[in-house]
Structure formats: structure tokens, C-alpha cells
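Sequence, please.
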């Protein structure tokens, strides 16, 4: 290691933290959670996470992009911009998705260059020196919460990134002080960067030295505008704004904020800018901000978080420390790292999408102002309603109430179609995936006693979404009780997902005393039966004439077919609102257990799923790399065999999670894969959000302390936990035996001690009685609503 690299690496190390604080009368249980996090987990394989700098739920997600030159079908592997195996870094951009199954963003890519030669094209990754991209070495790369650093070998630059909520700060240092420093800003670059994606862009140098601009793109979101502002810590010695296409007539794209006060400006479809600083005796800092509203919004966001690189880094580290301190972990080192990083990944989205003055761009592409809340976006709801949002109700209830739910309802108010978001980012709807899964997010928060939003308006938004006939076959679903496959693709999946969402609407309506709405949606919640084929034991697609579609292959996976990113094996278990009824429909407990075993033990040797990008992490026909399977291992408990759940969870955790770049078997999907691990490691999981219950599995940590928002703590202890003791022998809560297979939300929020006694073999008697089984609507015995978060 060269001397300057050694100094750089030492400077990049995080400040040492004292041991994490424990509840009164308890000793600390290990290093601070923040010091266990490894943001590189998921940056290889198909995890699609990014290693760069971001604050909790930050608007700016500042990270390296290793390649943006993909064609459409090849973009999947670079959905987060960075891929661990790539040999070069193309630059650092301000926006990314954490673990999405689709690519977009990568806005406003910047690349520092030291020396006299300043290329304005990225170049060929196979030809070093052919452009502004650079080779790098993982040994000279550092990733921590809120901080990223790397040495750009070809460009001769040490690069460091940090981020606040609405800003990103980069610090660049040339290896030699005699070399002039430059910054390339490439407005052509984007993720999912097919020809014609950038509709228009602008760049402007203002008299005060701030650089602003905007661009309009047509990507995953059909029309998206984003603006930026840059401030430099050193004066410019020169600049150039270059269009790399034939000059075109200005078409009126205002940028927004185009004016005559600029020192220089340019607009076009293919712009790249160069900023020159000359030789510098110290590092240059570049502070960036974005706004979906206009340049003025970006400038205001830029000013909203003052401080230099070190100040912003320290502030963001403090924010991460507070966010991650909700959980302390004692476990073997690999598990500690995996769980801590999972918690970190679960706290990146839904991201702030509103400006510091409250303005934001809505689904109608118009500007609105949030009243008393911070507008959020990046809603991957088909994924995150399952565990990500239930986790946030435990550790971020204020954010859930005042930001997330109000943002969902506000988006519905501004939606041209009058429905809640489906898959939204930066306020723009993509219509990706199925269901109206904002409904369970809202219902779960309300039923848990989380306030801060207008429940009547929220219920009206849920009802409107569930009765909008043009959406996804809902018209036929409301008249027939199922979605017909000859009129709507993925009809089997849509039928059962709509039925679950309907049940959550009914739950919230009944708790609010709206018995008319509750009765309607309770009836609709039973529509899953209309797609259940008693003869085969699978959920299947039916045609308009009522017949099941043939031929039928339960292992077939094809986009646009009967199922969404899955097949009959995965979707036939999606009746979370009434698993007891499904057990009966399958022929009883023994038949259900046998079918679950058949799913996990299925021989896939003759099947080829290479055409389906999201099908990863297979254990038989269980597919942990995609969400429809995520609750399935817990379903043994509904058939009286929780010990089988315990065995399957061990199989899943050991094969699907590792503290390595390829340590996630599938897309993290904005925190869902990670939230699954956090819950599962603690020993319980929300199979049915809005039920106010968690199914008990088995813990994967020796001890953990969950700091609850009401000031209480839940301590989880697993006595004798090791590979030789994988089964639960007994469970106690505050010293009282728990003989049922579930915990109530109120019990968790009350805090105390949840203790598991582990043993070598299964306890087949524990929680096996029918009275001990988790929630099902046909056997419901729960209160309508929790007393609240504390």
C-alpha cells in the first residue's frame, strides 16, 4: 500500500463508538449496531443494493455507478448502478434504488478528473484510459452508513461521498497537488439508459458560482423532471457546456427556472459539462442537492443543511446511530453483520421526496405542498407491505403515521385515476406489479394505534382504489368474484391479492364503526375460494365462462401468464387472511404439511427458470428471492406443526443470507428481503399484516434488545442456541409460558423479556393445538384495534 493510500484508508475509518446502550440493569451486549453494518452486502449477485452514502430515508442516495451503458434487457443486473464484479467506476450519481427489480434514476452523474486531459465520454470499460471512467480496487474502497470512499486509479483521485437528507457532499483529492482538478457532469447518463430516455436537459452557471439545471426523462416513470444545484468549495478557473448532438431548437423546457441571470447556460437532449479548478493544495468539496419541483427548490435544499464534508458526515452518522440503535444484537459475527445490515437496508426507503419548503411533484405532474408532513415516495408496495412496513410500525411509527400514510393518501388525492400508489418514485407512478397494497400498509398502521393521519380520508382512499373498475381487472373481479384470465393477465395472482387487500379494508372499516364498508369487503375477502381448484389443490386462473384455464402446469413461470413473478406453487399459499380455511380446503393438517414439504423438496433438476429474472433463491419450489414465498415457511404453524417452520427457517436463513456482496439471494426490494431477516432473526414474523399478530418462528440471535418507540425494551434471549439446538423447546414472555404459536402486537409493545429455550430435537407438542394457532379470519378472536404505540 502506498503512503498516500495508507493515509487515505486510515482517514476513511469510522470513529469508534462506545458499546451500544442497554436497558436499565442490563449490560451492553456488543458493538454498536452501526459498526456492524456492511453496505456491500447485496451489491453482487441479484441483491441490487448500492454501497454509497445515504442518510436514513434520504432524498439523495449518492453512490458510484459502475456501468450505465446497458441495453434494456441487460439493465437488470445494474438496477442499483453499482455491481461489485465490475472493474471500473463510471462516476457518482445522486439517485438510486436500494434493491429494486427494475432500473431507473442514476441522475446527475459526476466524475472527478485530475490532470490535463479531461475526456467528456465515459469510454469503454475494457479499454483503460479511453474515457472518464476509472479502474478501482476493492481494497481501497470503504463503505459505511452515510459514507463511501474509493481510489480512482486511472483518474488519480481519492473520492469520498457523504449525504444528508436532501444533499450529497463529495470530497475529491488529487494524488498530486500539481495536477489540475476537474469535474465532469454528464447529463446524458442514466440507469436503464436506452436511446431517447433523456427528453431534455439544462445546465446553468449562476453569478454566485452555484450551478443549477434540470432534466426531463422518459424511463420507468413515463415523464419525470428532476433538478439539481451544485456548490463548489473552490472557485472555477474555467468551464464548458457541450452538446454532443446536433444543436436543436429550444423547445420550451424551462428547466424549470430558466432565466437571463446566468453567466452561462445551455439546454439540449445530450449535454455534458466540465468544471475546472486548477491545481489545489487541498481537497475540493462539491455539495449537491436535488428537487423534483424546480431549480429554486434545489437551491433551497442545498442551503437547508449547512456544513462541510466532515460536519455532514458526522451529522448523518449520528442520525444512523440513532436509527440503528433500536436493535442491539449478540450473535455469531456473520449473523450480527447480516442482521445489522438488514436493518440498515430497511431504513433507506420510502425516501423523502419533498423539498425543505414542503413542495413536491405529485402523480399528476403538478406541484403541491405538504401540510404538516414530509412527502415520501419510492413505494414498492407489492414487496414491502409484507414485512418492511410492519417493521417500520415497530421502530419508526412517527414516520409511518406523519409521513408514509399521509404521503400515500396525498398521492391518491393528486392521482388522475383517484387511486393509491402502486409502485411510485419521486411522486411519479409506474403502474408496476399488482394489487392495491397501500391498503394493508394503512390498515396495519391504523389498527396498531398509530395516529397522525385522517382515518376517514385514508379509508375513502382505500375504498376508491378497491373499486376502480379499469384497474387490473377490478371491474370483472367485483361482478364475478374473480379476475378472468381471458380478459386480464396474471388473473390468479390478482384474485388472491385483491382478496387479501379487501380483508385489510374490512378490518379497518370495522374498527372505525363503518359496518357497511366492512361487510362489503369481508365478503370480497373470501374471493380467493373462487380461484381455488379443489381437484388439484392449487390456486388457478379461471376464464370468463368459469372454467379453469388448461393446460395447467403448476411449475410454469412466464411473465404475463396466470401468475405474477411466480407459479401455482407459490401463489396457492397466498391466503394470509384465512390460512385456517386454506388448510381445510387442502384436506386438513396432514395434507397441508405434506404439500408444504412437497414444495420445499420439489426436484427442480429438469426445470429452467433462466428466462425469469426474479426467480432466485430456490429451495424446491420455494423461491426466497421473490416475495410471494416469504410467508410460506411459517404456514406449518397453521397446520399444527410449528417445529416444521423452525426447521425450514434454518434451511432458508443458512442458504439465502451471507455477509458478503452476493449475500442476498434476490432483490432486496426496497428493504423487504432485509425486513424478513430482521423479523426472522428475532423469532417472529408478520404473516398477516393488519391481524395484530406475529407468528413465532425461532430466533437466530443469542440475545437482542429491541428499543420500542414508547421507551420500553423487548429483550429476546435464546438459551442454548447453536447448530446442535435448532428447535424451540419452550417460550416464555416475562416468565409466563407461551404455549401458542403467535405473539400479539400489544405484547411486543409492552416490552419485557421473550425467552426461547432451544433443544436438539423438535418439541412436537408445543403450540400444536388448534386453539394455539395464529390468526385466521374464520377463527378470529382478536380485538379490533391496538391501544397504540405506547
Amino acid at each position: 500500500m502506498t503512503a498516500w493510500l495508507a493515509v487515505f484508508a486510515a482517514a476513511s475509518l469510522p470513529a469508534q463508538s462506545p458499546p451500544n446502550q442497554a436497558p436499565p440493569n442490563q449490560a451492553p451486549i456488543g458493538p454498536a449496531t452501526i459498526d456492524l453494518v456492511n453496505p456491500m452486502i447485496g451489491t453482487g449477485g441479484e441483491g441490487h443494493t448500492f454501497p454509497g452514502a445515504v442518510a436514513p430515508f434520504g432524498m439523495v442516495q449518492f453512490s458510484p455507478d459502475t456501468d450505465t451503458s446497458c441495453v434494456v434487457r441487460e439493465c437488470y443486473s445494474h438496477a442499483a448502478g453499482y455491481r461489485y464484479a465490475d472493474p471500473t467506476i463510471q462516476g457518482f450519481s445522486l439517485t438510486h434504488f436500494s434493491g429494486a427489480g427494475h432500473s431507473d434514476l442514476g441522475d446527475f452523474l459526476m466524475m472527478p478528473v485530475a490532470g490535463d486531459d479531461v475526456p467528456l465520454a465515459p469510454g469503454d470499460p475494457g479499454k483503460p484510459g479511453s474515457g472518464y471512467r476509472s479502474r478501482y480496487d476493492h481494497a481501497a474502497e470503504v463503505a459505511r452508513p452515510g459514507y463511501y470512499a474509493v481510489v480512482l486509479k486511472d483518474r488519480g483521485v481519492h473520492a469520498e461521498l457523504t449525504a444528508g437528507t436532501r444533499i450529497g457532499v463529495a470530497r475529491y483529492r488529487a494524488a498530486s497537488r500539481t495536477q489540475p482538478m476537474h469535474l465532469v457532469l454528464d447529463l446524458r447518463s442514466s440507469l436503464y439508459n436506452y436511446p431517447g430516455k433523456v427528453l431534455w436537459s439544462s445546465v446553468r452557471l449562476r453569478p454566485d458560482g452555484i450551478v443549477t439545471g434540470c432534466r426531463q426523462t422518459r424511463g420507468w416513470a413515463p415523464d419525470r423532471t428532476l433538478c439539481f444545484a451544485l456548490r463548489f468549495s473552490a472557485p472555477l478557473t474555467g468551464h464548458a457546456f457541450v452538446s454532443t448532438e446536433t444543436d436543436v431548437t429550444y423547445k420550451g423546457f424551462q428547466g424549470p427556472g430558466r432565466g437571463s441571470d446566468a453567466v452561462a447556460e445551455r439546454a439540449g437532449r445530450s449535454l455534458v459539462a466540465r468544471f475546472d479548478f486548477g491545481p489545489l493544495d487541498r481537497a475540493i468539496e462539491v455539495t449537491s442537492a436535488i428537487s423534483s419541483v424546480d431549480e429554486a427548490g434545489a437551491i433551497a435544499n442545498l442551503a437547508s443543511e449547512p456544513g462541510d464534508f466532515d460536519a455532514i458526515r458526522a451529522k448523518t452518522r449520528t442520525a444512523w446511530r440513532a436509527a440503528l440503535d433500536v436493535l442491539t444484537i449478540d450473535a455469531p459475527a456473520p449473523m450480527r453483520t447480516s442482521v445489522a445490515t438488514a436493518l440498515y437496508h430497511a431504513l433507506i426507503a420510502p425516501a423523502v421526496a419533498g423539498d425543505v419548503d414542503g413542495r413536491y411533484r405529485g402523480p399528476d405532474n403538478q406541484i403541491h405542498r405538504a401540510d404538516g408532513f414530509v412527502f415520501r415516495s419510492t413505494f414498492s408496495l407489492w414487496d414491502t407491505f409484507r414485512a418492511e412496513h410492519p417493521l417500520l410500525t415497530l421502530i419508526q411509527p412517527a414516520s409511518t403515521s406523519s409521513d408514509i400514510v399521509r404521503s400515500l393518501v396525498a398521492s391518491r388525492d393528486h392521482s388522475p385515476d383517484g387511486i393509491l400508489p402502486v409502485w411510485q418514485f419521486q411522486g411519479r407512478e409506474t403502474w408496476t406489479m399488482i394489487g392495491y397494497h397501500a391498503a394493508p400498509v394503512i390498515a396495519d398502521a391504523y389498527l396498531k394505534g398509530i395516529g397522525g393521519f385522517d382515518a376517514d380520508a385514508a379509508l375513502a382512499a382505500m375504498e376508491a382504489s378497491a373499486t376502480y373498475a379499469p384497474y387490473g381487472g377490478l371491474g370483472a373481479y367485483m361482478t364475478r368474484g374473480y379476475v378472468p384470465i381471458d380478459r386480464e393477465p396474471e388473473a390468479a395472482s390478482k384474485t388472491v391479492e385483491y382478496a387479501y387487500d379487501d380483508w385489510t379494508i374490512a378490518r379497518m372499516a370495522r374498527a372505525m364503526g363503518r359496518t357497511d364498508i366492512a361487510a362489503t369487503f369481508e365478503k370480497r375477502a373470501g374471493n380467493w375460494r373462487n380461484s381455488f381448484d379443489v381437484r388439484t389443490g392449487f390456486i388457478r386462473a379461471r376464464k370468463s365462462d368459469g372454467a379453469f384455464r388448461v393446460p395447467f402446469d403448476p411449475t410454469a413461470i412466464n411473465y404475463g401468464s396466470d401468475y405474477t413473478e411466480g407459479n401455482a406453487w407459490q401463489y396457492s399459499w397466498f391466503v394470509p387472511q384465512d390460512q385456517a380455511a386454506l388448510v381445510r380446503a387442502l384436506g386438513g393438517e396432514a395434507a397441508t404439511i405434506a404439500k408444504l414439504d412437497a414444495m420445499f423438496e420439489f426436484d427442480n433438476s429438469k426445470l429452467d427458470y433462466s428466462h425469469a429474472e426474479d426467480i432466485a433463491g430456490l429451495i424446491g419450489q420455494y423461491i426466497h428471492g421473490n416475495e410471494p414465498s416469504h410467508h410460506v415457511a411459517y404456514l406449518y404453524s397453521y397446520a399444527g406443526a410449528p417445529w416444521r417452520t423452525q426447521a425450514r427457517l434454518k434451511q432458508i436463513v443458512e442458504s439465502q443470507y451471507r455477509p458478503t456482496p452476493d449475500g442476498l439471494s434476490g432483490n432486496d426490494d426496497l428493504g423487504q428481503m432485509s425486513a424478513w431477516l430482521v423479523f426472522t432473526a428475532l423469532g417472529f414474523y408478520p404473516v398477516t399484516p393488519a391481524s395484530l399478530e406475529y407468528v413465532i418462528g425461532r430466533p437466530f440471535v443469542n440475545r437482542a434488545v429491541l428499543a420500542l418507540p414508547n421507551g420500553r425494551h423487548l429483550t429476546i434471549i435464546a438459551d442454548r442456541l447453536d447448530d446442535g439446538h435448532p428447535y424451540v423447546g419452550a417460550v416464555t414472555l416475562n416468565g409466563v409460558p407461551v404455549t401458542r404459536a403467535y405473539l400479539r402486537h400489544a405484547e411486543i409493545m409492552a416490552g419485557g423479556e421473550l425467552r426461547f429455550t432451544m433443544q436438539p430435537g423438535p418439541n412436537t407438542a408445543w403450540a400444536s393445538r388448534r386453539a394455539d394457532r395464529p390468526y385466521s379470519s374464520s377463527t378470529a378472536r382478536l380485538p379490533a384495534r391496538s391501544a397504540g404505540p405506547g
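The chain has two domains: 3-13+34-321, 326-779.
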